[in-house]
UniProtKB/TrEMBL annotation:
Species the sequence originates in: Flavobacterium circumlabens
Keywords recorded for this protein, A-Z: DNA-binding
Keyword check for DNA-binding: yes
Name of this protein: XRE family transcriptional regulator
PROSITE patterns: HTH_CROC1 (PS50943)
Length: 130
């Protein structure tokens, strides 16, 4: 029995992550300064140029390692661990998670608060002008 593992198909991993992020090929192409057709070609390739891979990872909001080590199984494990938190009082045990979801919520909230402050300042300037 052979213990050799099948090499990772980087293009397919990029495609799956892009789809999970709800991003179209056109949008990814624009983000890295290339065409949809080029993204299609990259996603059909087993290997990707390291510099291009860095650009794609940045555009997708993940690390290069996350793309290289992506597997469907890890995604299912993440969501199973995320929703099955009855025994851990809400702690997340997803080892493959590259960010803290709570940090993302806080970041979004802070951006919303800043936006509201800017609106108030603008409206105050308008009111003073009358």
């Amino acid at each position: 029995m052979s213990t050799a593992t099948k090499p990772r198909h980087i293009g397919r991993n990029i495609s799956r992550i892009r789809e999970l992020r709800g991003m179209k090929q056109e949008v990814l192409g624009e983000a890295i300064g290339t065409s949809q057709k080029s993204i299609s070609g990259i996603e059909s390739s087993e290997t990707v140029d390291p510099e291009k891979l860095k650009e794609i990872a940045k555009a997708l909001g993940v690390t290069v390692e996350a793309i290289e080590n992506f597997s469907e199984e890890s995604v299912f494990n993440f969501f199973n661990n995320f929703y099955d938190n009855s025994s851990n009082n809400g702690a997340i045990h997803a080892a493959n998670c590259t960010f803290n979801p709570l940090d993302k919520v806080v970041e979004l909230y802070e951006r919303l608060v800043q936006s509201e402050k800017e609106k108030i300042e603008y409206l105050e300037k308008l009111m003073k002008g009358k």
